[in-house]
Amino acid sequence: KLPPMRLELNGDYLAVVKQDYDAKTIYMLSSRTGDGLWKTDPKVPGSPQPIDSMFIRDGKLYGIKLHAGQGFYFAGMDCPTGKDLFRPNEQAGYGGKPEVRLRHEDYGPAAVVEIKDRQDFEMKVFDVAGGKLLHTVKAKGVGAFGEHGCAAATVQNGQLALLGKNELKTAVKK
User: Fold this and answer.
1) Per-residue b or e along 45-72, where b marks 16 or more CB atoms closer than 10 Å to that residue's CB
2) Which residues in 102-128 are b (16+ Cβ under 10 Å) and which e?
């Protein structure tokens, strides 16, 4: 059985997240040469940890790290070294294990995260320089993000929009 694998490519870097036997691992490779730059090493404390949903921008890897409970971490790592750009920002207090996805749309110096927690939908905007939460938009809904007749979200021209069951919420970049 082939292991599940996720890839993210941008510029000089290729991030690969996969299952190595019984442990999830992240590898950072040079997209030009194929050389390994760094990887998760379970024997080394502080070794880079896998990221679930991810994207690379300007030599930096941003993504969602797994949470042991009912939440997630927004994280950033330097592509050449694997070092954290900032302390991962924990978002907790959800009613269950939320479904979380990092969007690839450019929102200036920020990253946008979609979260579904049962019938609660939200979008959170994080500063990519320091990992701080900038703002949140919430709405009630059903189904999955982007499914016809269900919750939908978009980011355009620096504006965030979240359509829930009976309401449209927006946030404008300041």
Assistant:
1) eeebbbbbbbbbbeebbbbbbebeeebb
2) bbeeebeebbbbbbbbeebbbbbbbbb
Nearest CA to 61 out of 131, 149, 146 is that of 131
Instruction: Please answer whether residues 54 and 61 qualify as being in contact, where contact means their C-beta atoms are separated by less than 8 angstroms.
Output: yes
Q: What is the pTM of this model?
A: 0.87
State which amino acid sits at residue 17: V
DSSP string, 108-159: SSEEEEEEEETTEEEEEEEETTT--EEEEEEEE--S-TT-TTS-EEEEETTE
Residues of the chain where predicted confidence (pLDDT) is lower than 70: 1-3, 106, 149, 157-158, 173-174
